[in-house]
């Protein structure tokens, strides 16, 4: 097992049993709109996948939480510009109250780890 950026409460990502599990991520800049926050989070996911030795083409599942489901299409614009169209993961998107002031979207991901 490999922990990426472990902290006292959680690791940002964990590689275990052939998978990479990425914790729920929020944007670094909370003053941005949903599209910009989504783009920032997806860039973070790219970074954690790279740290684990894999990439978005190996995503299996993503979960997305939006403060306002009315921003679904805006979030999807950023998503569709990023996702590998030949290898889209399974995905769920729901409306939810999020912790932390200014968070409009949160995304977690599961990907296949690199093969040995």
UniProtKB/TrEMBL annotation:
Pfam families: Ribonuc_L-PSP. InterPro entries: RutC-like_sf, YjgF/YER057c/UK114, YoaB-like. This is Enamine deaminase RidA (YjgF/YER057c/UK114 family). It comes from Stella humosa.
